[in-house]
Amino acid sequence: MKKVLTLSLLAIAVTSTAASATSINIRHEWKPEYGDKNDQAHADRIAVSHRFKSGIGFEVEAKYKTNNNDAWGDQSGNGNQANISYRWKINDTFSLTPQFKLEANSDKVGYQGNLTLGYKATDTISTSIRYRYHYENYKSSLDKANSHYNRITLAAGYSGIEDWKFGLSTDYTIKQEGEEVWNGDKQGISEINSKISYTGFGGGWAPFVEIGVQPADKNMAGDNDKDDWRPRYRVGIVYSY
């Protein structure tokens, strides 16, 4: 985790003198208790991203979690990730962005390649579709089979109200290996998320709120709850310069 924080600070130092878009994203996540398990969960993450005028971009992210019911109590590392991408602006309407992501925690390393097609319908309405392939390699001491999945994300954004931005996205996951996604199947909708951001403070600051739902974890929820939707709440702030 110290290495990720060092990389984050280095990224800030490098991009502070570069001409283009840099952002720092700090976010807190809360999952309330669900089913008959005492599984309330809090997690935090900080991400630093930058995109050069050439279209090349990168992001590094450090994640943390709490091991009790307090929002910031008994914290420990929850993994890290880094990605690199290239945004190709086809024209004023379409863009294409390939990306490679590396994600790791104490138990596994994940490798992900994805491709996003963006469509700008108007100055205030945008949509995108993203395909990603993810492979997870578990450490041998766990004696757990590696897993992989395909995922498609549909997203839409609206910024037609002054100082406000709205977003909605849906993930559809197809698992070749690993646990079921929904109702006994290895494929199905794995997440629905909504986001509201406020940009009226100026100076590059934009607080946001996210409300999402996911299928209940099959290992944590009771048998009567495992195919219900579980809520998830996030709050955070983005600083762009």
From TrEMBL:
Residues 1-21 form the signal peptide. It holds the Pfam family KdgM. GO terms for molecular function: porin activity. Keywords: Signal. InterPro entries: Bact_OM_Channel_sf (IPR053713), Oligogalacturonate-sp_porin (IPR009331), OMP/PagP_B-barrel (IPR011250). GO terms for cellular component: cell outer membrane. GO terms for biological process: oligosaccharide transport. It comes from the Bacteria. PANTHER family: OUTER MEMBRANE PROTEIN (PTHR38105:SF5), OUTER MEMBRANE PROTEIN-RELATED-RELATED (PTHR38105). This is Porin. It comes from Vibrio rumoiensis 1S-45. The lineage of its organism: Bacteria, Pseudomonadati, Pseudomonadota, Gammaproteobacteria, Vibrionales.
